[in-house]
Structures are given as C-alpha cells and as structure tokens.
C-alpha cells in the first residue's frame, strides 16, 4: 500500500487490515489523520506503517447505518425471534466460539466461522465499528471430547509431541484456512492456556456467590439449580434432564446434582496441561473459558454471540448461567447459531470417512472460495447438504464472474443496490443477495460499469474476491465487444449470429461455454 493512496483518504473513515507481528492480521477502523495514523471511535490515536497495510478501504458515505432500511435484523436463539441489532453509539461487540486446536477445522466448522465474518462485514457495511473476539481452545474439552482421555493429550501421545506444540501447529493452520476463505481476522484470538488467572478468578467469585461449590471429589462444580432461567437458550429444563445423560466428563461423582458441571478438575493421574489453583493442581472445565474471556475482553457486554447449533446445549446454556451469575446481568444480548452441515447426505465423521477439509478442495483444483460461495447460497440457520457437485458449480461461477468483472472494466467505484442491502440486513439472506447478482449479470438494461460497481458493493460482504484477476492473457477490446455482441444475440435468440460470433471468438483462441447462467469463456 502506497503512502499516496493513504494520503488521498485523509479525513475519511476507513477500515485497514494490518500485518501482525506474529504472522496474523489485525483490523482497525477510524478516521485517517495522516498516512500513518487514524483515530478510532474511542478517540485513540493508532499509528501504523504503510508497509504493514495488507488491505485498505474507505467506507463510503452511503454505507452509514440507516435506522429504517440498513439496520441488521437477525434471529436470536434466546428469544426465538428475528430482532434488530442496536449499536452502542455506532459500536457492536461480537464473541465467536473458536476452534479446539487438536485437529484441522472441517468445512462444517468453517461454516460457523464464516457466519461471524458475515455478521461483522454486514455491520461494517452499515458504518458500524465492530470488535470481534474469537477464543482458541488449546486446553481440549470439546463437547465430544468427554471420553476417557482429552483429545489434545491423546493426539500428543500418539505423535509423541508436546501438546502445546500440536496446539500451535493447528492454530496456525486454522488462521491459514480463514485467510483462504477470505474471513477477516478477529481483533483478538485469546488462548485458554494464557487466561488461566482470569478463569480461576471467575471460579472463585462463583464460589463466593454460592453459584459454585467444591465437590466431594475436590473438583469445583457450578450449581445448576442456582440459576433460575437455566434452559432458556436450548429449551432443556433442569427438571427434564435425567441422570446418565452424557453432559460432561465421565468421572464426576463428586457433584451434588447430575446436571451440575465442572469448573475446575483436579489433575488426578494427569501430568500435562495442568495448572496450580486454590483448589489443587488441575485444569479448567470447557465452559468457564468463554465466560471469563468474553467478560474480560468485551467488558461484560457482548452484543452478538456466535456459534454452531451443536454448542447451544450444553456449552452456551452453561456459559450464560456462569456469565450472568458473575455479573448479575444479561451479558449476551443476542445469541446467533449456525445450523449443521451435512456432506452428500451424511453427517461428517471419521468413522464415515467423509470429513472434508479446505485442503481437500485445493487438492481437487477448486478455488477455496468455492466453499464460501456454496455456503452463501444457503441460509445460515438452515441445515445444508454440501456436495462435490455444488462445490464444482460454485468454482465455475466464481471463474465466470471474475471474467465478467474484467470485461466490465477496472473501476473500483461502488454502487449501492437496495435489494442486496435489504437481503443482507434481513437475517443475512445471502441466497437472495446471490440471486440478485445472477439477475444483474443477465440484465441487458444495466451497463457494464454499473454491473461491476454493484458486484463490488455486494462483495464487501460476500467476500468472494470478485475483482481478482484470472490467470491468462487479458482480453482485447475487440474480443470484449465480440463477447458483448454474442450476449445480445443470445438474448434475442438470434442463434445464427450467436454461432457466427462463437466461431470468431474460438478462432481468436477463446473457448466458449453456454449454460443457463449465461456464456462463459476461457483461453484454450
């Protein structure tokens, strides 16, 4: 990024992505004061170097939040209704449950991480400043980990590698996958292992408030009966929860009530990933991690909490009970959950042999953004059945759109489209926004420059990198004119003219393909 480009935007509101010192990214939003500084909404002066800028965009005036048409409305799992997201003086905080880093995130996990990105991008489009925190669970304890051994330690034992070395490896691969999917980096990625003091402090406070107790086995448990509205998110009421259900760890004989859960587990025979505490050496329960970090990093006020539907119970139910008991108020204003993702009709699992990673798409020669495209064609809170066929179709459409974008010019101008704006603001109706782009593509009454400007406007949220240049030679003006003439001929059903133009184009080295979506081309 040149200093001249930044200098030209001085006085304007902009979003800037900076290269981080440890290989990641951080985003800053505010009004540019110079080519090396901006002031954010809190009045803080943030300085940077132009060489550190990975991405820079001026937020257009028309992107300002409009209370009538531009305000995001999204489904809240707690209230079971689509509700408006109210900003706090133009600011929204988001907490997204992150990965447990003992393995690669599969495409179902990535669907959830995309959801938080779509929410943040939509709010940014509306001129709202977003702070996004996503935790890294590097101490184990996923909901399906409650077997005989923690999976982080199991992977460590299998590979004969330190568990934290494994955690850092998969954390790095998680960030790589996010970048490949064009998911913007969160403001912070706090690790559970580096926030142990915060978790122990929260546990101590819960004991003081009589919301938790030391069990007969020396472990600390949350008293589920102390929280009157337990079950409000999932509908699972305490009186209906029966003993023997697989809620938590198998060795929890020290708790008073079967639905209580561990806040701190004593190490027992465990020798790795343990910490000293007032209750003895051990490790934290999974749920306390998100309560402690969301309270600490977002000042006990989370506007939107994002996660997969599988986390609704018990994780988010337990997190809400902990957080509200600690603060005395409703910490999370809106709970947003993404639905399950099937692959070719089946739930992904190791036993079924159908776990699909982003790397598998790349190995097949597919653009990784074909996954993002395919996910966008489905509502986030509807169960989705992904397939190789749908991914290949998405790959083809992305290539066609990028070719069209190059034919439509080189302008970086954006043009607001009310239907796209309304689609995104209405419970993230991305399928409707995608259909609008397909209609614009075919609409002969819209000029090429306007088409490009609308596609670029939508891509601020869709994130498909539609202005990315395809490999190969650039089209000459003559070839662009021939392609446009052929589009007109096909729309008028002048098949003779269409065939004659195809012959001219193919003689010039292009390969022409026709489909229900329109014509596409590639170099032979």
Automatic annotation (TrEMBL):
The keyword Metal-binding applies. Residues 88-395 form the tRNA synthetases class I catalytic domain. One of its GO terms (cellular component) is cytosol. One of its GO terms (molecular function) is metal ion binding. One of its GO terms (biological process) is cysteinyl-tRNA aminoacylation. Its EC number is 6.1.1.16. Keywords: Aminoacyl-tRNA synthetase, ATP-binding, Ligase, Metal-binding, Nucleotide-binding, Protein biosynthesis, Zinc. Residues 474-521 form the Cysteinyl-tRNA ligase anticodon binding domain. It is an enzyme of class 6 (ligase). Pfam families: CysS_C (PF23493), tRNA-synt_1e (PF01406). The keyword Signal does not apply. Its cofactor is Zn(2+). NCBIfam families: cysS (TIGR00435). PANTHER family: CYSTEINE--TRNA LIGASE, CYTOPLASMIC, CYSTEINYL-TRNA SYNTHETASE. This is Cysteine--tRNA ligase. It comes from freshwater metagenome.
């Amino acid at each position: 990024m040149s200093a001249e480009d930044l200098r030209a935007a001085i006085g304007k509101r902009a979003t800037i992505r900076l290269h981080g010192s440890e290989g990641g990214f951080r985003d800053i939003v505010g009004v540019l004061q110079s080519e090396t500084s901006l002031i954010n909404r809190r009045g803080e002066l943030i300085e940077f170097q132009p060489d550190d800028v990975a991405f820079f965009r001026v937020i257009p005036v028309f992107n300002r939040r409009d209370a009538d048409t531009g305000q995001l409305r999204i489904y809240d799992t707690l209230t079971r209704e689509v509700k408006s997201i109210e900003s706090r003086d133009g600011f929204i905080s988001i907490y997204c449950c992150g990965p447990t880093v003992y393995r690669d995130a599969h495409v179902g996990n990535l669907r959830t991480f995309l959801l938080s990105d779509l929410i943040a991008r939509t709010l940014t489009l509306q001129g709202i400043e977003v702070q996004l925190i996503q935790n890294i669970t590097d101490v184990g304890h996923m909901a399906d980990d409650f077997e005989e051994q923690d999976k982080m330690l199991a992977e460590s034992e299998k590979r004969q590698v330190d568990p934290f070395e494994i955690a850092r490896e998969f954390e790095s691969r998680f960030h790589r996958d996010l970048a490949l999917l064009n998911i913007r980096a969160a403001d912070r990625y706090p690790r559970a292992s580096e926030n142990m003091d915060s978790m122990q402090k929260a546990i101590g406070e819960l004991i003081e408030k009589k919301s938790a107790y030391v069990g007969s086995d020396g472990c600390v448990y949350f008293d589920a009966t102390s929280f009157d509205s337990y079950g409000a998110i999932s509908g699972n009421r305490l009186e209906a929860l029966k003993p023997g259900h697989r809620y938590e760890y198998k060795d929890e004989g020290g708790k008073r009530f079967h639905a209580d859960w561990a806040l701190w587990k004593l190490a027992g025979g465990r020798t790795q990933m343990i910490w000293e505490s007032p209750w003895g050496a051990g490790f934290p329960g999974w749920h306390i991690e998100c309560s402690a970090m969301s309270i600490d990093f977002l000042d006990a006020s989370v506007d939107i909490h994002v996660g997969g539907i599988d986390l609704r119970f018990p994780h988010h139910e337990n997190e809400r009970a902990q957080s509200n008991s600690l603060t005395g108020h409703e910490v999370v204003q809106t709970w947003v959950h993404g639905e399950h993702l099937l692959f070719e009709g089946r739930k992904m699992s190791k036993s079924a042999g159908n776990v699909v990673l982003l790397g598998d798409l790349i190995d097949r020669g597919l653009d990784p953004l074909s996954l993002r495209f395919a996910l966008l064609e489905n509502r986030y809170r509807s169960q989705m059945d992904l397939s190789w066929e749908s991914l290949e179709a998405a790959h083809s459409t992305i290539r066609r759109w990028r070719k069209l974008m190059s034919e439509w010019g080189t302008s970086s101008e954006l043009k607001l489209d009310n239907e796209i704006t309304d689609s995104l603001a209405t419970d993230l109706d991305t399928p409707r926004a995608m259909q609008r782009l397909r209609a614009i593509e075919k609409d002969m009454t819209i000029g090429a420059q306007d088409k490009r400007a609308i596609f670029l406007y939508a891509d601020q949220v869709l994130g498909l990198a539609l202005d990315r240049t395809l490999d190969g030679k650039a089209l000459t003006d003559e070839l662009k004119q021939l392609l446009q003439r052929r589009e007109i001929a096909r729309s008028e059903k002048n098949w003779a003219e269409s065939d004659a133009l195809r012959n001219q184009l193919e003689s010039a080295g292009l390969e022409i393909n026709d489909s229900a979506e329109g014509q596409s081309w590639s170099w032979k």
